[in-house]
Amino acid sequence: MIRLLRIDDRLVHGQVALTWTPAVGAECLVVANDKVAKDDFLKMTMNLAKPANAKLLIKSIADTVTFLSDERSKPMKILVLVNSVQDAAALAGALPEIRSINFGGIRAREGARAISKAITVTDADVIVIRDLLARGIELEVRQVPTDELRSIETLL
Amino acid sequence: MLTSYILITLIAMFGHSEDFLGTTLLSRPLVLGPLVGLVLGDFDQGIVIGATLELIFMGNIKVGAAIPPDVITGGVLGTAFAIMSGKGPAVALALAVPISILAEMVASGLFVFRPVWNKRFDRYAAEGDYRGVERLHILSGLLKPLLMGVVTLLALLLGSEAVRTFVDTIPPWVHSGLQVAGNMLPALGFALLMNLMFNKEGAPYFFLGFILTSYLKLPMIAIGGLGVITALIVTRITHKEQPPAGTDSDFDDFDMDDNPPVMVKPKAALLTQGDIRSLFARSMALEANFNFETWQNTGFAYTMIPVLKRLYRTKEAMSRALKRHLQFFNTAPHGSTLIIGIAAAMEEQNAREPDFDEESINSVKTGLMGPLAGVFDSLFWGTIKVIAAGIGSSLALQGSVLGPLLFLLIFNVPHLILRYKLTFIGYETGTRFLQDLSKTNVMDKLKAGSSILGLMVVGAMPATLMSIRTPAMIGSSDSAVALQGVLDQIVPNVIPLALTFLVFYFVKRNVKATYLLLGLLLLGFLGSVLNVFA
């Protein structure tokens, strides 16, 4: 089952390896990203960073949906990482199991405004976020598990 | 008195210069406490208070952009007020905890404010004005020590009398309650550390550490040594050579020739050894202008400037290079030089080959910064800092000046050697070093080994660094037996161990650290008043 779906544009890094993986007891990290899935260099770097006690899978969004829909993935404790609101929405759309999304880090970009220390959103992101909220999915902002949990609604 | 205030302010400003000093732990309470003690004429007390505060703030580490309470301001002021009012560590922590939480808000405000400069950095970059970039990076970096220096001085000038009067009104029973509560607080630090590393596979090593200290009374240094030996034995035996470190099957057909950004050192170098050494030196100031929009970007550009100056003679080329390195960047500072060295090698190749893809420099940087932060954060915060703090605090609690010294040496000798070497490894072997590494299981061994070592040291902590006992008696007045005596015969230090696990249980359930802190204070207080704990 999916223990956490996290939006983090650095995907696997310190906060994920050091704090989230143990906090949610993840045995398997799934990086769901079309670009990384095709890039051997990025895959190599992420394999170096993966936490010692977890398995790391790097898949396209479509393959991630297939994997997470498979009965065999149900007993695994899985932490899913995406790097954009759009990818998170695509997974949430295909997998009704996802009831909550963690916003970890989205860096400053052209046309994006900061809504918290580590999160910026564009107008396009906000439309997707409103849609996810309308579907009753919890959207919470935390960099590390011990941060105070804040709903994204209060920040927009 | 004013002289002391100014000296204490300078100590706080020195601590807040940590972002120029390469995160070398000079700003931790264990180091600044003794300095404050020295100024106030009570060096020994400074060492002990510093160690006490170090333990409480042990679980607070800086990972990514998650900013923990400001232990620099809190630690310096807490230590100063406690020594000036003639009270011990209990008062220091009662003051340091709230001060550090308040001071964190001021520091965060600065990190929010700093992106204001980003437009100016961009303008300098557009003009190829690298001196402007250097100047602004340093000036903005100096804001933190200056701002927090003002805060510290004001707090000392306005607060000292009030704190003294307030502390004098504390009745003795409250003071002893505070003392017991203070002795309990390290359980929170230990639990936060356990939260980073404790799991089923690691549990035996945690208890091994506990038993070695609690029953065999081994000092922390011995635990560190045994931990290293255990880690070496275990990783060599249980981890057989396997194909690529990745568990991903895609890795089997990992084809090196298909990787566009492979970097190998070109034959005739344009850069000198001195240039590469200056990359290492400048990387110490990587985080000086840390901000919440572009994080360490100006630090990266600042670090690269000696190389850029050597390679690019025209304004246009310099401008493009500065723009490249002013893009968002964030990684673990301790291992940052690996990426910096790789970037230098790529810049060199770019200067040599006109058709080099400049974009690839940033794609390598951004590809590496997250994963390498994962590697180095785990190694330095999860293991080396834990061992350094465990050994350092255990000596400092006994008033030994070796405590702070060993703390700095244990962390910084490996840190600085690795940081220096990685600059050259990055420059000379480029990304090939990482590719070779990913084909072996060295990383897996390193991670498994460091978690064993870390857990043994954390397991030893409740027994050596927490002193909570019970004065309770069992039985009727005539034949009453001291409960502690009975406990000591079965499991010595069982109370600190149980408390640590109790807090760990709540940490696992995502109870906020602030509540746990208050809960522990309350428990210690009640325990002291009801004569259950002492």
TrEMBL record, chain A:
Keywords: Cytoplasm, Kinase, Phosphotransferase system, Sugar transport, Transferase, Transport
A Pfam family: PTSIIB_sorb
Record keyword Signal present: no
Residue ranges of every copy of the PTS EIIB type-4 domain listed in the record: 1-156
Superkingdom of this protein's organism: Bacteria
Entry keyword annotation includes Transport: yes
Gene Ontology MF, one: kinase activity
Subcellular location: Cytoplasm
InterPro entries attached to this UniProt entry: PTS_IIB_sorbose-sp, PTS_IIB_sorbose-sp_sf
Entry-linked PROSITE patterns: PTS_EIIB_TYPE_4
Assigned GO CC terms: cytoplasm
GO biological process annotation, one example: phosphoenolpyruvate-dependent sugar phosphotransferase system
UniProt name for this protein: PTS system, mannose-specific IIB component
Species annotation: Dyadobacter soli
From TrEMBL, chain B:
Keywords: Cell membrane, Membrane, Phosphotransferase system, Sugar transport, Transmembrane, Transmembrane helix, Transport
Keyword Cell membrane on entry: yes
InterPro entries the UniProt entry points to: GatZ_KbaZ_carbometab (IPR050303), PTS_IIC_man (IPR004700), PTS_IID_man (IPR004704)
Domain of life assignment: Bacteria
Entries under Pfam families matching the protein: EII-Sor (PF03609), EIID-AGA (PF03613)
Membrane topology: Multi-pass membrane protein
GO biological process assignments: phosphoenolpyruvate-dependent sugar phosphotransferase system
Cellular component annotations (GO), alphabetically ordered: plasma membrane
Cell compartment(s), UniProt: Cell membrane
Record-annotated membrane-spanning stretches: 63-84, 90-113, 141-160, 180-198, 205-234, 386-411, 452-470, 490-507, 514-533
PANTHER family: N-ACETYLGALACTOSAMINE PERMEASE II COMPONENT-RELATED, TRANSPORT PROTEIN, PTS SYSTEM
Protein name per Swiss-Prot or TrEMBL: PTS system, mannose-specific IID component
